[in-house]
Amino acid sequence: MAKIRLVSPRAIVLLLLYLVPGIGQTVAPVLWFLFSAWMLAIQYCDYPFDNHKVPFKEMRTALRTQKVANMQFGALTSLFTLIPFLNLFIMPVAVCGATAMWVDCYRAKHALWK
């Protein structure tokens, strides 16, 4: 439910930007790609965070501390899902990548066991 409250207002604003002449064709697609990259990072990082019972709000705060790394992860995941047949394999690879990112960056601070 928290994800829907996070995504819905932002998605509506981005969709309304498409209706503005000039901005809808130039700026809105770039903003939509950045938004989807951030949401993919949140979606795939949610698996390891949820396995360790980290609340969603705390997860978002933790992901914001390393926003560049998470945006790169989300952008690459988004780009690879556009490639036919590769997109079938990228989903489990992205879950593994998010888990590896959890171990490298977040486990020391957020894990119940250390």
Automatic annotation (TrEMBL):
GO function terms (MF aspect): high-affinity sulfate:proton symporter activity
Membrane topology: Multi-pass membrane protein
Domain of life (superkingdom): Bacteria
Keywords assigned by UniProt, alphabetized: Amino-acid biosynthesis, Cell inner membrane, Cell membrane, Cysteine biosynthesis, Membrane, Sulfate transport, Transmembrane, Transmembrane helix, Transport
GO BP term, pick one: sulfate assimilation
Subcellular location: Membrane
GO cellular component: plasma membrane
Residue intervals passing through the bilayer: 12-35, 79-103
NCBIfam families per UniProt: PRK04949.1
Matches recorded under PANTHER family: SULFATE TRANSPORTER CYSZ
Protein name: Sulfate transport protein CysZ
Originating species: Enterobacter cloacae
Classification of source organism: Bacteria, Pseudomonadati, Pseudomonadota, Gammaproteobacteria, Enterobacterales
